[in-house]
Amino acid sequence: MEQNEILAENPDPDSRIFGLTGGIGSGKTTVAKILENMGFSIYYSDARAKDLVNESAYLKSEIIKLLGEDAYNKDGLYNRKYVANIVFTNPGKLDVLNSIIHPAVKSDFKNWLQNREDKEIIFKETALLFELDLDKECHQSVLVTAEDNARSKRVMDRDGKTYREVLNIMNKQMPEKEKIKRADFVIYNNGTLEDLQNEVEKVKSEIMALQF
Ligand code: ATP
User: Fold this and answer.
1) pTM score > 0.85 for this model?
2) Ligand 1 proximity of 29 Cβ (cutoff 6 Å)
């Protein structure tokens, strides 16, 4: 996206929103934490979406209409496993589910943004930023990427998944090459955590040098 392209629907004219994304195990959450430690505000879209499906009565009723009562457990909490199983084999339902959840996250982000004082530069962590064309809701994008081997090893260590399970997920995501083409800034995470910290510092300097 062009650096000074104007957002069609800018949620806050005082803010510059950077979409932060990366495939499974790329290190985007680690980068978000580094940025947070540097003092930036981060909106975690995926974590908020997970909360909103439980907090919002409207979302709950729409999701039950789409996927049935079993989309929520007896205790009233969202049944992620059940929903994942249905949408895994039914991409049409996944699209509708995303179209139900997305507007709720969008308005939650808008509220979050309005309540911030330090909102000149905001990072919005979103796993499917490019896949769902959500980069159009950000001024610019930052991609965290790493070699497949490093990513799969990290996810196997973190989640106890098998190599094949990680590979299946990686193969369903947008190819890294395509994401690299779309991103305005790319952070390569193939080394140590210290290397990653240095890479983030570099991108921070480039962002701070931009004229908004
Ligand atoms: P997901 O989309 O699967 O949630 P993610 O992109 O948010 O993944 P992280 O959770 O940040 O990725 O990183 C995956 C795992 O790899 C974490 O356990 C993290 O601590 C570890 N990790 C990230 N970068 C490095 C690195 N450079 N060296 C060692 N471990 C790393």
Assistant:
1) yes
2) yes
Tell me how far CA of residue 203 lies from CA of 144, 191, 211, in angstroms: 11, 16, 15
Is 25 labelled as part of a ligand binding site? yes
- Check the annotation: does 145 bind a ligand: no
Please indicate, yes or no, whether residues 21 and 51 belong to a single structural domain of this protein. no
Span 35-88, pLDDT tens digits: 999 999 999 999 999 999 999 999 999 999 999 999 999 999 999 999 999 998
Domain that holds residue 60: 46-117
**Is the same domain home to 104 and 133?**
no
Nearest-5° angle of CA 162, CA 145, CA 188? 125
Q: Ligand 1 atom closest to Cα of 28?
A: 6
Residues 55 and 66 in one domain: yes
CB of 193 shorter than 6 A to ligand 1:
yes
29 in Cβ contact with 110 (< 8 Å) = no
Q: Cα(118)–Cα(68) distance, rounded to whole angstroms?
A: 42
Residue 145 structure tokens? 């990427």
Mutate to test the pocket of ligand 1, among 44, 154, 194 (most ligand atoms within 8 A of CB): 154
89-139 residue pLDDT tens: 898 999 999 999 999 999 999 999 988 887 789 999 999 999 999 999 999
Instruction: Give me the half-sphere count of Cα atoms (radius 13 Å) on the Cβ side of residue 66.
Output: 22
Model pLDDT for residues 180-205, shown as the tens digit of each residue: 999 999 999 999 999 999 999 999 99
